[in-house]
Amino acid sequence: xxxxxxxxxxxxxxxxxxxxxPTRRERLRTSTLTEIKDExxxxxxxxxxxxxxxxxxxxxxGMTAPAIYRYFDSLDALVEALAGDLYIELSEVVSAAxxxxxxxxxxxxxxxxxxFREWSVAHPAEFALILGSPLPGIVAFQESCDDxxxxxxxxxxxFMETINALWLREQYPTPPRSMMEERLAAHLEPLRAGHGxxxxxxxxxxFLSGWSRLYGLxxxxxxxxxxxxxxxxxxxxxMELHSFVGQFTGQSxxx
Length: 255
Hints:
Blueprint lengths: L14 H5 L4 H24 L6 H8 L3 H4 L6 H26 L4 H18 L1 H8 L4 H8 L7 H19 L7 H7 L5 H7 L5 H22 L10 H17 L6
Helix pairs in contact: 2-3, 2-5, 2-7, 5-6, 5-8, 5-9, 6-9, 6-12, 6-13, 9-12, 12-13
């Protein structure tokens, strides 16, 4: 973390923070960028991903189409920026759920999984943009997930840290390490780029296995692909969630 410079302590000194304060032009640009992304999200919610266009946003904001290109040089760049904001929002929801769950890692996992589902069901258009069929801007966003500060990595970090904490507390059942080393280890480079080379392969497997199961159910619920089977997808999600955490505790009745 960078240190904050509060000045030299001399009375009347303004310190370097005053020099780094944003100018009026910079504040206006930041405000306009936020307004553009807010309008893009509104179009997403009301019309789906295909409704987002720079021309439509410019029209709604009273800008000329060429003017908006001073802020985003392409639609893909705007979609990528919006995706980052949505992942940050989702990360904050998940992290808050983890904090409120107390110190028990199993309770934290269940709280985070439930928070993820609740946000996704409440925001189906946003879910579709960042976790559905990817638009070109989303493809670029996903392909850049090799930085620990990437919003997508930040979203996954609370889950990874908690599953790792469980492993350190008591090694839970996993496939044999030799099997995972042979079949999985060589393919974990993208995950390790964001979460660190030191992630045990058992933790990586548990993380990916759990994400596949829980994301799969949430995705089917959001896109209404479970209506043929269950009247309450939440009940099925809870069963699967209890089954998942059962591998850490040896039981599946954790509430």
